[in-house]
Amino acid sequence: MKRIGLLGCGAIGTQIALAINSGQVQAELTHVYDYDKSKAESLVARLDKKPTIVENPHLLSSNNVDLVVEAASQDAIKNHALSIIQNRKDLMIMSVGALLDESVFDILFDACHEFKKRIYLPSGAIAGLDAIKSVKSELESVTLITTKNPKALAGAKFFETKNMDVHSIKEKTVIFEGAAKEAVTLFPANINVAALLSLAGLGSEKTLVKIVADPNTNKNTHKIEASGIFGKISIQVENVPDNTNPKTSRLAILSAIECLHTICSDDIKIGT
Ligand SMILES: NC(=O)C1=CN([C@@H]2O[C@H](COP(=O)(O)OP(=O)(O)OC[C@H]3O[C@@H](n4cnc5c(N)ncnc54)[C@H](O)[C@@H]3O)[C@@H](O)[C@H]2O)C=CC1
Ligand SMILES: O=C([O-])CC(=O)C(=O)O
């Protein structure tokens, strides 16, 4: 059975830990870390089989684990992903936006080859990555239109740079249009899906992102429009937000659990 270390004990990390605890994912959660120790403590209190709370992220991967699951932040990837791979652990990443920094991507790509380790990127809060990957060589345009309630967008760096108060948005408003590369920097906790789409398809400069703030929605909606020699793809998901973190969709959590289940089980793999 695989031994898992968890980096980040918030909305996604908690549900992953509970899925392991219930046996839905056949693995052993052995170590957890969160820079807010109270988050790690409240998570461990909910588990029957208690993992060790480690005092720093390096202890996650220097211990005897097979895979580290990151569900923390882009900074956590920038600061810790390389040492996890160098410690010869596989890594599952939720804060995929960090990989649009080419220096981060290249270093991790090379490290995976050198240390013969894998990085897994679950499909997260979107659908259709299988198709985007398959048509990659024939893609001509990809646009992601993401609509969230302003309260799910609150706190993003974007609002500091624009001197805009998110709570003053009273009607459906396009607040950002630009390349995925810029979107993941300005909305680091909201649009990691744009990074997934970029990495699967046209890259972070050519993947276009539109972010819409809609005070009348209670869903996190992601619409992908892609076209090229192969034809057209149009996929929309209307996600229920997690009840502890409105930025994060329920689908992102379920996708992380399904990805981990696939990694941890020896059976039939469905889909690309
Ligand atoms: N790939 C995808 O489709 C999606 C990715 N995400 C991303 O996944 C990550 C986790 O999401 P949630 O669990 O919803 O967030 P959350 O905010 O509920 O939980 C994150 C936890 O990680 C901890 N944390 C943050 N930075 C840390 C660091 N450098 N070191 C240690 N602990 C750290 C926080 O204290 C918090 O407890 C976020 O970066 C989020 O943006 C979220 C939704 C979809
Ligand atoms: O969960 C979502 O709807 C998307 C999200 O926050 C992200 O990609 O960072």
Automatic annotation (TrEMBL):
The keyword NADP applies. Residues 8-122 form the Aspartate/homoserine dehydrogenase NAD-binding domain. It is an enzyme of class 1 (oxidoreductase). The active site is at H222. The keyword NADP applies. Pathway: Cofactor biosynthesis; NAD(+) biosynthesis; iminoaspartate from L-aspartate (dehydrogenase route): step 1/1. Residues 169-257 form the Aspartate dehydrogenase domain. Keywords: NAD, NADP, Oxidoreductase, Pyridine nucleotide biosynthesis. GO terms for biological process: NAD+ biosynthetic process. Belongs to the L-aspartate dehydrogenase family. This is L-aspartate dehydrogenase. It comes from Candidatus Nitrosotenuis cloacae. The lineage of its organism: Archaea, Nitrososphaerota, Candidatus Nitrosotenuis. The gene is nadX.
